[in-house]
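Re: [ENG-882] Designed sequences occasionally contain unexpected residues at chain ends

Forwarding the minimal case from QA. Structure tokens:
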């Protein structure tokens, strides 16, 4: 069993382990393994790593060290670090160097973490397999013929193969939880507004959240504590008074299961068996399993694939070949705009810009976009109601285990359907976690997803730790 952050922290504090040795040992693993897996798009500059190492040592010396001091961490390549490349795995930003730090980066730097490398992802976080990366796929550490999941596949895979203890990803419709489940690690999507989006490349602004990956619920919780909190730079950031009453309300030990929603065509038999066995274990350890119905849950995927592309189409308008990124000349400025965007964006990104522009166009705005927002509001109310009766909602994280590289690339709809269980949390803005729950006959990991009420990450941590022990 790999050491937890708290264990590493104790060793660093007592001096039985040095920051230099710790960083070198992880770099060694990366050098050995990343050629094959391709979880990373690049290392951060030596000067950044060196300055953070110096800072970490000072913090240990003067007694200000946090649990992340001296700990190497990888960031998804849509999170900005001043003076470092940030590509969003897109050709259009291939040589882009960030001009400021994301708020999560400021917090990690202050905590003394060692920012080590940039993780591969689907281009601008659109996808569920990292196959949409402009720089090649990330392979699954458990089976090199399978995908690592996505869009934060690199962040999940690097933790899975032991290249760093923890990493950050972003989740718009499942991009932390699904790769976590495919790679056998823990991944947390936080409450919308709990972690600042300042310095995260925007995909769907009303859905995006940054969150941690780790080997245990405890490690993920430690990172969460450092990166979450109010930020004046993000207008959707929750103020301290808007956060839940954490750790004060007792949990009821009731787990809600939307059976009709889970038992559907297209869900893998082994996934269902594993899910039912997991529930059985929870029951034996004292949890009440309660069947629930959430009327509009079925519609979450459709709502997501209307709202998300609408936001994508407006957010990505900024990549115009003029202000930053790849620039292709044209006879007129409008030609240059088209040339740059055609050369710079991959197929999936273009598809979503088209879909989004369509649903926002006059005449369709009411038919699609407004209707999706109405259903979103209804679903949000239904969730509020359900959480009066249950602590969490449990589902498998993904309807299938990691699929083969190339298996779904020709069929975007099949890829979208794999998001069925993860998108509701983003639509509603509540926190959700994926925790490893065993392996298929062929040795591929399963993930169990727990979703809690708004700002109740504490409930996820309590139940998550109980579940891990089983
Ligand atoms: N797979 C989903 C999509 O393609 C989720 C992406 C994400 O969460 N960034 O949109």
């Amino acid at each position: 069993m790999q050491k937890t952050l708290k264990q590493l922290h104790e060793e660093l504090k007592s001096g039985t382990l040095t920051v230099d040795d710790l960083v070198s040992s992880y770099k060694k693993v990366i050098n050995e393994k990343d050629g094959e897996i391709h979880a990373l798009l690049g290392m951060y500059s030596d000067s950044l790593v060196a300055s953070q190492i110096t800072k970490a040592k000072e913090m240990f010396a003067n007694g200000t060290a946090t649990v992340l001091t001296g700990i190497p961490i990888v960031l998804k390549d849509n999170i900005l670090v001043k003076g470092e490349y940030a590509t969003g795995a897109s050709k259009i930003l291939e040589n882009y160097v960030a001009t400021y730090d994301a708020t999560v980066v400021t917090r990690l730097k202050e905590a003394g973490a060692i920012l080590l490398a940039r993780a591969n992802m689907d281009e601008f976080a659109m996808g569920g397999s990292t196959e949409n990366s402009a720089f090649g796929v990330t392979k699954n550490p458990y089976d090199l013929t399978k995908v690592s999941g996505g869009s934060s596949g690199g962040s999940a895979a690097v933790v899975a193969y032991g290249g760093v203890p923890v990493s950050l990803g972003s989740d718009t419709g499942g991009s932390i939880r699904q790769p976590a489940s495919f790679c056998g690690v823990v991944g947390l999507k936080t409450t919308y507004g709990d972690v600042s989006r300042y310095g995260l490349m925007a995909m769907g602004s009303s859905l995006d959240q940054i969150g941690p990956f780790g080997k245990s619920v405890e490690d993920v919780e430690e990172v969460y504590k450092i990166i979450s909190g109010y930020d004046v730079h993000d207008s959707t950031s929750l103020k301290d008074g808007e956060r839940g009453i954490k750790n004060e309300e007792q949990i009821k030990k009731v787990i809600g299961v939307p059976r009709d929603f889970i038992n559907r065509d297209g869900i893998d038999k082994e996934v269902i068996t594993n899910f039912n066995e997991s529930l059985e274990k929870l029951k034996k350890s004292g949890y009440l399993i309660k069947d629930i119905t959430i009327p509009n849950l079925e519609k979450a995927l459709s709502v997501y694939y209307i709202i998300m592309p609408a936001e994508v189409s407006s957010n990505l308008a900024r990549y115009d070949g003029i202000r930053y990124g790849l620039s292709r000349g044209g006879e007129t400025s409008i030609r240059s705009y088209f040339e740059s965007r055609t050369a710079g964006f991959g197929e999936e990104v273009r598809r979503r810009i088209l879909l989004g522009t369509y649903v926002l166009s006059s005449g369709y705005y009411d038919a699609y976009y407004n209707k999706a927002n109405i259903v979103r509001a209804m679903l949000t109310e239904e969730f509020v109601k359900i959480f009066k009766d249950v602590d969490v909602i449990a589902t498998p994280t993904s309807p299938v285990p990691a699929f083969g590289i190339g298996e779904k690339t020709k069929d975007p709809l099949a890829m979208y359907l794999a998001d069925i269980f993860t998108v509701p949390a983003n639509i509603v803005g509540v926190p959700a976690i994926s925790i490893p729950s065993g392996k298929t006959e062929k040795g591929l990991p399963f993930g169990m997803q727990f979703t809690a009420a708004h700002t109740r990450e504490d409930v996820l941590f309590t139940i998550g730790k109980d579940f891990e022990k089983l």
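QA comment: On inspection the terminal residues look reasonable. Residues 275 and 396 are 6 Å apart (CA to CA). Proposing we downgrade this to a documentation issue.
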